[in-house]
Amino acid sequence: MTDGLVNTACVCAVLAGGFAFAVFEQTHGLENWTFETQRRQLAGDGRLWAPPIALGEKPDVGWVPWSTDADSGRVYIVDFIYTRCPGLCEGLGAQFRLMQRELQHQHEAVPVSLLSISFDLAGDTPEQLAAYSQRHGADASVWRVIRPADQKEADRLLRALGIVAIADGTGGFVHNSALHVLNQYGQVRGIYDYGNWQAALDGAERLAGEPKSEGARE
């Protein structure tokens, strides 16, 4: 009986050790316990990329904001919204308005654009997107409120960036509220917490000053 208990204990210890090692490996040394932390680790390693997406509403039909062969040097600050959202999305709109104001008042123009991308294609009509833009004073030359051309494009983008949007059972969604800074190629170069818009803007402006070829996907 004693030998059996010892053997069982040894097996359990081996299994526990194997599990601990697997967790250690998969979480970068126990750093990535959450999915959001993993996203940020990937971004920090330069391994989080947004695929080129086609946008489906006028005047953006066929417009692809970033691509692997882009040569614009443009940087994008991106959030993900749905216009019926009464809390986070209104707060994000207020933060984007502050960033827009700073960009508009700079002495020298910098190639930084703001994009609010709706993931609710069924609910966000062109009229609702326009109303959200108007409500927050979006200037289309700086800040566009847009949606992908179709659900397939939307799903591809959300999946690539690890954006979570889960129906909450009341007609709304639980979703990411972070600000994403992307270069001209679609590489995510920074993820910033809700409310940390100044750091996101500062990061985007620094990135806009880097050589255009830096970060190109091979």
From TrEMBL:
<keyword id="KW-0732">Signal</keyword>
<dbReference type="Pfam" id="PF02630">
    <property type="entry name" value="SCO1-SenC"/>
</dbReference>
<keyword id="KW-0479">Metal-binding</keyword>
<protein>
    <recommendedName>
        <fullName>SCO family protein</fullName>
    </recommendedName>
</protein>
<feature type="signal peptide">
    <location>
        <begin position="1"/>
        <end position="22"/>
    </location>
</feature>
<dbReference type="GO" id="GO:0046872">
    <property type="term" value="F:metal ion binding"/>
</dbReference>
<keyword id="KW-1015">Disulfide bond</keyword>
<feature type="binding site">
    <location>
        <position position="89"/>
    </location>
    <ligand>
        <name>Cu cation</name>
    </ligand>
</feature>
<keyword id="KW-0186">Copper</keyword>
<dbReference type="InterPro" id="IPR036249">
    <property type="entry name" value="Thioredoxin-like_sf"/>
</dbReference>
<comment type="similarity">
    <text>Belongs to the SCO1/2 family.</text>
</comment>
<dbReference type="InterPro" id="IPR003782">
    <property type="entry name" value="SCO1/SenC"/>
</dbReference>
<feature type="binding site">
    <location>
        <position position="85"/>
    </location>
    <ligand>
        <name>Cu cation</name>
    </ligand>
</feature>
<feature type="disulfide bond" description="Redox-active">
    <location>
        <begin position="85"/>
        <end position="89"/>
    </location>
</feature>
